[in-house]
Structure formats: structure tokens, C-alpha cells
Design a protein that fits this description.
NA-bd_OB-fold, DUF2815 family protein, alpha+beta, 5-stranded mixed barrel, 4 helices, Enc34_ssDNA-bd, single chain
Length: 199
Amino acid sequence: MAIDNQSTKVITGTVRLSYTHVFEPQSIDGGDEKYSTAILIPKSDKETLRKIKAAVDAAKELGKSKWGGKIPANCKTPLRDGDEERPDDEAYAGHYFLNASSKNKPGIAKPIGKDGSGKTKFQEITDTTEVYSGCYAKVSLNFYPFDAKGNRGVAAGLNNLVKVQDGDFLGGRSSLNDDFDGEDFDDIVDISDDDDFMN
């Protein structure tokens, strides 16, 4: 059965990224190295949640051929409740979350305006500090069925992401602005004209 990529593909609304490894693949628990990120979806974003549910249901239907013709009773699904599973993490409060990964590097970009026909233009992001745990993005996902070592379910594949705004760092890292807020820099000499300063 051919996979219908349109029925299993989702473009999210604005979501927050966490545990983000999109520039270099990482091995989790000794598994294959993959590019990955957790995606925090506000519970108020009913449209994204509706699209994810529909894509997961479509992936379950596709999975029947892998699973002996029927959807298993204990079929694992990727969407989880942050309030229930991460009660001590305020970033997850009021959010659902899922983990998305890919063996291939995702496209990473930011919008930079419109072209003559009104289509959004994008600029690739190559600065690895620009996309991080805590920033906000819209993400292209593909949901697919899996059957691995007795575990059966639907997983989220990471296609592409577009950063839409900065946010506070997650995972204990403080932001530069927070660290130096209140520090006095009025008496700092302007070094912009001194090309030899760092040499």
C-alpha cells in the first residue's frame, strides 16, 4: 500500500522547540543518530491538534498492512499531554508535545518577506545558535506507522522548520539579555573602529 504523504503530513501553527538537535544528529539511548526536536503545541491551538489527530489516524490506517490487518489495541501515538507527563516543567504547562526526528537533516529557514507574486521568501539558517530549545517555529511533520521490537504505533518524522521568533532558552541555559540586564555599560569604550582589538 502506497503511503499517502498528503494525509499524513502536517504543517503546524507556531510551536515551541525543546531538546533541539537539528544541525547535528544525536544518538538517543544508543540508537541511530538522528536530527530531532520536541515540539510543544499550545492546547489552545485546536487547528494544529486537529490536523495532527487526522494525520495520526491516517498513519494508523496505513499501518494495518504492517500490523496484520488491524490497528493494535496498544498502538502508541506520538502526542502527549505536558500537564500530565511533565507536571514540574512550566514550559510544558498548557501544552501537548511530541518528539519528531529524521535521519536526514531538516530544512531550516526563516521568512524574509514576500516576492512579487505574494509568496513568502525564506532564507536558510546556517548559524547553529539561531535555532535552539526555547525558540518558536512552524514545523513540517510526516506521521508514519512503525513496528519495531514488538512496539507498534505511529511516529512523527521531521521534515522542515521555519523559525518565527526567539524565546527564553529551555534546559537551564540563561539568555544573554537576562544575564546582563542591569549591568552598566555606559562607560565602555567603542571598539567598533579598532580592527586590531581581537588580533
